[in-house]
């Protein structure tokens, strides 16, 4: 269990680092695109488009690398929450020791924290293209009449309209909405658990 938690911590750190790298690249791209549009520099815009393509490739590789770990983390979170609920009733009945319940609670909290890290960082990446789009629209009056330059602008604008969604196995998208659903589910489970515990106490009283 401890080895699994260490691996999860390592994945969390690398995931946050990877998302930070993508964000930094997009900040640089935004500056490059804005400079190229203002100066009507076709060569700089070509360089920005090529770099943008490389960043998108890096993002796709990152999604592939973290797809299964995120899915397993969500599954383990559900497992730990279920075990915590089950062991809570067993502790009340005196069948198992409280330490086992404590370990399950710690594991549940750790899994939830991991999911929160994934959801928040993935959600922050969703609108990274907004900076590039804003730069293009704010300086649209600077667009050259050169058809070649306009074509490059169109390519960049088309690619920048694609949201950076972090999907897992094409089942669900990692974002704040998913986090809210998971937290609601966990809250419902523990609320039902507390209700059943109170009912047992009333019956034994």
UniProtKB/TrEMBL annotation:
GO cellular component entries: plasma membrane
Listed InterPro entries: 7tm6_olfct_rcpt
Annotated TM spans: 70-87, 99-120
Membrane protein topology class: Multi-pass membrane protein
Top-rank taxon, per record: Eukaryota
This protein's UniProt keywords: Cell membrane, Membrane, Olfaction, Receptor, Sensory transduction, Transducer, Transmembrane, Transmembrane helix
Molecular-function GO terms, alphabetical: odorant binding; olfactory receptor activity
Pfam families linked to this entry: 7tm_6
Protein name according to UniProt: Uncharacterized protein
């Amino acid at each position: 269990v401890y080895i699994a938690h260490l691996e999860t911590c390592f994945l969390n750190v690398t995931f946050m680092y990877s998302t930070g790298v993508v964000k930094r690249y997009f900040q640089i791209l935004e500056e490059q695109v804005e400079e190229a549009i203002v100066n009507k520099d076709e060569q700089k815009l070509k360089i920005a488009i090529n770099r943008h393509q490389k960043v998108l490739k890096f993002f796709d590789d990152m999604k592939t690398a973290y797809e299964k770990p995120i899915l397993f983390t969500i599954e383990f979170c559900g497992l730990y929450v279920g075990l915590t609920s089950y062991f809570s009733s067993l502790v009340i009945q005196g069948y198992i020791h409280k330490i086992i319940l404590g370990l399950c609670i710690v594991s549940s909290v750790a899994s939830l924290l991991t999911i929160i890290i994934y959801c928040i960082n993935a959600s922050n990446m969703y609108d990274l293209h907004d900076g590039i789009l804003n730069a293009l629209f704010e300086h649209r009056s600077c667009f050259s009449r050169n058809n070649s330059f306009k074509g490059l602008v169109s390519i960049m604008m088309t690619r920048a309209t694609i949201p950076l969604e972090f999907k897992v196995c094409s089942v669900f998208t990692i974002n704040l909405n998913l986090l809210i659903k998971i937290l609601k589910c966990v809250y419902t489970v523990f609320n039902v658990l507390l209700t059943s515990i109170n009912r047992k106490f009333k019956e034994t009283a």
